[in-house]
Amino acid sequence: xxxxxxxxxxxxxxxxWDRMSEQYLREVDRRLAPVVEGLVVRAALEPGEHVLDLGTxxxxxxxxxxxxxxxxxxxxxxxxxxxxxxxxxxxxxxxxLENVEFRDGRAEMIPAGDAAFxxxxxxxxxxxxxxxxxxxxxIARVLHPGGRFVAAVWGAPxxxxxxxxxxxxxSFAPAPPVPxxxxxxxxxxxxxxxxxxxxxxxxxxxxxxxxxxFDDFESAWEVLAGVTTAQLAPERREDAKRAVRALMWPDVGxxxxxxxxxxxxxxxx
Length: 269
Description:
By secondary structure, the protein is α/β, with parallel strands linked by helices. Helix content is about 40%, strand content about 25%.
């Protein structure tokens, strides 16, 4: 039965990411650039290295990594969303990057051989995986001994505005088919760190407040909650908007800065 729920959860997630892929490229990527930068800097990539980007999305991390590892290195980005992968491939082509490839795949079953990578990266993707113990084992399997792992996950809603916004809006929607996934799912990363440790990856966490801005409430709502609340009845959607406005945006026409506690998990196999 758990398998059915997992499959249903996977299909549900694919649907969400597919529906927001173009908007993600337009509106989200540039706002998350400081997180991508923080992740890539901490990875300290070297020319000639082989890199895996888990949950690559529109390719923001993979494309930066491809430049840094150069023509002797390779980058593989995997994602569950074919629409996101289509955009990532298009961007790689536009940038004439020939050392990066994008594959359909799940973090729980990475489509790569043992010890295939020097570095595994995961930028704001591990909060959405369904079986994190399996992911920890898979990351350890595909990293060669001494290989590096760097992930970024959001902090708790009290210290991370994007999580507060999305959790408040999401509380008006039906519960997702799988529990324990969502933007704040790794606010306390202790269990994941333990799972990584058991798999053979020793980690530490660096925390940094990073941010972005929206000009007004409506544009923030459209980008951060539009897709996930699109299926709600109109009055239910209005209730959700009212709740977020009351909590976070007293003057809806004014700009707002989002302060987001970002947790970087840094490890070595």
